[in-house]
Design brief:
The structure is a single chain. With 108 residues, this protein is mainly alpha-helical. It has one domain (3-102). The protein has helices at 23-41, 64-72, 74-80, 83-93; strands at 3-7, 10-14. Strand 1 and strand 2 (10-14) form a beta hairpin. It is globular. It starts with a strand and ends in a 15-residue tail after the last helix.
Length: 108
């Protein structure tokens, strides 16, 4: 784990992985274990659930300090730009095709 930070509507987890590791398995484990923890600790008055999907992006070693700073500064960053807008920009920057119906939904 290199850096982690959360906002009320999303979380950033920056990790180092080996090429043989599965991102899907990691995300499944993080979601399952954290959901159990939130439920056991009774942190939510209503049922807690993660949104279905996730985004995963890779960075070179030379970008590690920048990504860590970016994650550390989430609160200030999102005062200027909403997460769904930022996420679309990231998808475009990484040239990832997407369907708008599957993009992050605002919490209700």
């Amino acid at each position: 784990m290199l850096q982690i930070n959360s906002m009320p509507d999303h979380i950033h987890i920056f990790i180092g992985m080996r090429p043989t590791q599965s991102i899907a398995s990691l995300v499944q484990n993080v979601k399952a274990e954290s959901s159990k923890w939130v439920k056991d600790k009774k942190f939510c008055d209503s049922a807690f659930a993660w949104q279905e999907g996730y985004g995963a992006f890779s960075y070179s070693r030379t970008h590690v300090p920048d990504v860590i700073r970016y994650i550390q500064n989430q609160e200030a960053h999102h005062q200027k730009e909403a997460f769904p807008d930022e996420y679309r920009k990231m998808l475009k920057a990484f040239e990832i095709e997407y369907d708008e119906q599957y993009i992050f939904k605002e919490p209700v």
